[in-house]
Write a structure and sequence with these properties.
The protein is α+β, with helices and mostly antiparallel strands and about 240 residues long. Helix content is about 45%, strand content about 25%. The two termini are about 35 Å apart. Bound molecules: zinc ion (ZN).
């Protein structure tokens, strides 16, 4: 049986001398690892279609429970400009990490697939795509169920009010942070501004079209980036 779908390459790993294992986020099969025979031997169009972020129409064969083999891959969009922009690619690689580490294998999520793809097109078009980079992280965490809880303290479970702190994957209240027993364990924590909390909650409900119409300050985007970096690190580690 031949399977066909559209997919975005998340990563490629060397396998033996000339082969590759390619991790795709696909429209119909979700996260999937596929075997690519000898793409590294010759500089071919097939080989370049296996670069990270490349969006292609792919066909593969093999038993479902085994590592299936790519037999065809036609590039729809290479997203070469994003891949070659180190700063942007680095920020985006956090999204790739989330998808690789926490999406269930072979379970399609068409909503997330479309959102990710459409956001990539926007990122490629924009001179400064920082808001799109933050947006796709917030939305991916939300859709995957790894959104931080901004309502209740992660330690005492009381309702969070004025002040928010972040520690080891949780939003924590002032009381818990000042508690001696907590401080004695010396976990890392840092304050989270109300602006970040507000934007997080709002952004998780926005569409890509809505994002286009909103102006977010560079300061706030920077804060969001830092917060996300920490949260993604903690989430993936867990
Ligand atoms: Zn607390």
């Amino acid at each position: 049986m031949v399977y066909s779908t559209e997919g975005i390459v998340l990563k490629s790993t060397s396998y033996g001398e000339a082969d590759l294992i390619v991790t795709y986020f696909t429209k119909d099969y979700g996260l999937i690892n596929l075997f690519a025979k000898s793409p590294r031997k010759i500089k071919s169009r097939f080989g370049s279609s296996l670069e990270p972020l490349t969006y292609s129409r792919i066909s593969f064969v093999g038993k479902e429970e085994k590592l299936q083999k790519i037999i065809q891959s036609d590039i729809i969009e290479s997203f070469q400009q994003i891949r070659e922009n180190y700063k942007i690619f680095l920020k985006l690689s956090e999204v790739l990490k989330i998808l690789i580490e926490i999406s269930p294998k072979k379970e399609p999520n068409v909503e997330l697939f479309k959102l990710f793809l459409n956001t990539l097109f926007q990122i490629q078009k924009k001179q400064n795509p920082d808001n799109y980079l933050v947006f796709i992280k917030v939305k991916t965490l939300k859709i995957m169920g790894y959104f931080p809880d901004f309502t209740y303290c992660g330690i005492c479970r009381n309702k969070l009010k004025e002040e928010f702190y972040y520690s080891q994957g949780f939003i924590v209240c002032r009381q818990c942070i000042s508690d001696n027993s907590y401080l004695n364990k010396k976990p890392l924590f840092f304050p989270v501004s109300r602006g970040v909390v507000k934007l997080f909650n709002k952004m998780s409900t926005w569409s890509l079209v809505f994002l286009e119409r909103v102006k977010i300050t560079d300061n706030l985007l920077g804060e969001m980036e830092n917060f996300l970096k920490n949260h993604i690190m903690n989430t993936i580690k867990a």
